[in-house]
Specification:
With about 475 residues, the chain is α+β, with helices and mostly antiparallel strands. It contains five helices and 23 strands. The chain has three domains: about 5-75 and about 290-460, Efflux pump adaptor protein, beta barrel domain (Elongation Factor Tu (Ef-tu), domain 3); about 80-105 and about 250-285, RNA polymerase II/Efflux pump adaptor protein, barrel-sandwich hybrid domain (OB fold (Dihydrolipoamide Acetyltransferase, E2P)); about 110-245, Helix Hairpins (Orthogonal Bundle).
């Protein structure tokens, strides 16, 4: 009769006493070397137990692995929404259809967006005209200021010359009047002319000073040009936005993949993902199935030995006979606590090129291989004894005597140990077990005896074999 690895592990977890003797079921009394052939260490022939067992060292394959379960997930899931809102008029793909990047996934009725584009173009034309008008006004004001400023400056200079001449004439006439050579009337006339020339200088200067006001008016014209130019840019952006919203009425596939979910239909109104506070309508989901992963949950007690790059084997419950090769890619930094148990998610990439039998959300069972050896010298794990840091076994000589032999152990698991040095193939090692434990094991394996064993979920009876 054969007993599988999974059954042995179940016994170990269900009964504290079985932790001692189940290993013996696998490697003590059941260490049948099948005629001395080197084979798989997963199953053995069951024989009647006696308190001490003698087992020969043999060659075989051994590995230490962590078992975990989870689900198949795609490389990525992309939720498709529309930046624009409106009524769906075209929806060319259905669930399970394969799409390529750039394929049209959905079209919305573009009538509103077309109207917005036309209005934006009109507003842009008006802004361009306003800018042209503002620039023309600035040019006219600049030219007028230049001419008027030159005229006013010349008038001031001319008035000043007239004033200087009037002063000279007035001074000469006053001298003549003092010598009784000029009448009072003539003197009054020249002095009046002098005063009038002075007033004329002031008036011309005031006219020149008024050019500062004209310069301020010109600055306002320049600001009007800048405002018109800014308004033109705003209208350009508005047109660009309107054209973009028109483009956004057509949604294209961002990546290659398969339509894994379809949540809308032709004629349905959808809301914008950028405007609606609820995030917009989810139209479909595109899953990248070119690369698949298994996200499995590993107990915190076993996570320390797992790192990226470890080999793994994955089995989906939908096809238990097919094993998929995998490799660990990522260990999540934060664990999750469920009912007091902390697990860490480990992402394993499926390396097999043929992924036809795997689908997202399928239940997946994985074995992450921590260490492996081929054609290794193997002994039952219970045969290994310890004294401090030193490991040793009891070796039975041909005359029946037992002697201690120090050994160096390589890979170990719950059932077997790899011997790196200290033993040779074919040597006999001793496994000790009490009579009560041997009797308990024999009863557990007797098909005529129903054995009860406790587990975390209650009492369960092992069926007859």
């Amino acid at each position: 009769m054969k007993i599988r690895l999974t059954a042995a592990l179940a016994f170990l977890n269900r009964h504290r006493r079985a932790a001692i003797v189940v290993a013996l079921l696998l490697v003590g009394g059941v260490w049948a070397w099948r005629g001395g052939k080197s084979g798989d260490a997963e199953s053995f022939d069951i024989k009647q137990f006696v308190p001490d067992q003698i087992v020969k060292v043999r060659q075989g394959n051994l590995r230490r692995a962590v078992s975990a379960s989870g689900k198949i997930v795609p490389r990525r899931d992309v939720t498709i929404k529309c930046k624009a809102g409106g009524q769906i008029i075209e929806l060319p793909f259905d669930v399970s259809d394969r799409v390529q990047a750039g394929d049209v996934l959905v079209r919305l009725d573009p009538v509103d967006e077309n109207r917005n584009v036309r209005q934006a173009k009109i507003n842009l034309q008006i802004a361009e005209n306003n800018l042209a008008t503002a620039k023309l006004n600035e040019e006219i004001a600049t030219a007028r200021l230049k001419n008027d400023e030159a005229t006013a400056t010349a008038a001031v200079e001319s008035a000043r010359i007239d004033y200087e001449n009037a002063k000279i004439v007035s001074e000469r006439n006053r001298q003549l009047f003092g010598k009784k050579l000029l009448s009072q009337e003539n003197l009054d006339t020249t002095e009046l002319a002098e005063k009038q020339a002075a007033i004329n200088v002031q008036n011309r200067q005031i006219a020149l000073d008024e050019m500062n006001i004209r310069r301020t008016e010109l600055e306002l014209k320049k600001r009007a040009v800048a405002d018109a130019d800014a308004n033109l840019e705003t209208k350009k952006l508005a047109l660009s936005d309107a054209e973009q919203r028109l483009i956004e009425t057509t949604v294209k596939a961002p990546t290659n993949g398969v339509v894994s979910a379809l949540n809308a239909q032709i004629g349905q109104m959808v809301s914008s993902a950028t405007v609606n506070t609820g995030g917009g309508t989810e139209i479909m989901t595109i899953s990248d199935l070119d690369r698949l992963f298994a996200d499995v949950e590993v107990d915190e007690s076993e996570i320390a030995g797992i790192e990226p790059g470890l080999r793994a084997e994955i089995v989906a419950e939908s096809n238990a006979d097919k094993k998929f090769a995998g490799i660990t890619r990522r260990i999540y930094a934060k664990g999750t606590r469920t009912r007091g148990v902390v697990n860490f998610t480990v992402r394993i990439e499926v390396l097999d090129p043929d992924l036809r039998y795997l689908r997202p959300e399928m239940t997946a069972n994985a074995e992450i291989i921590l260490a492996a050896a081929t054609d290794a010298l193997l002994i039952p794990a219970p045969a290994v004894r310890r004294e401090g840091e030193q490991k040793y076994v009891l070796v039975q000589a041909p005359d029946g005597k037992e002697e201690r032999r120090d050994i160096v152990v390589g890979i170990e698991n719950d059932r077997h140990a790899q011997v790196l040095s200290g033993l040779q193939k074919g040597e006999a090692v001793v496994i000790s077990v009490s009579s009560d434990e041997a009797r308990w094991v024999n009863n557990a394996l007797n098909p005529n005896v129903m054995t009860q064993f406790s587990s975390g979920r209650g009492v369960r009876r092992a069926p007859p074999r």
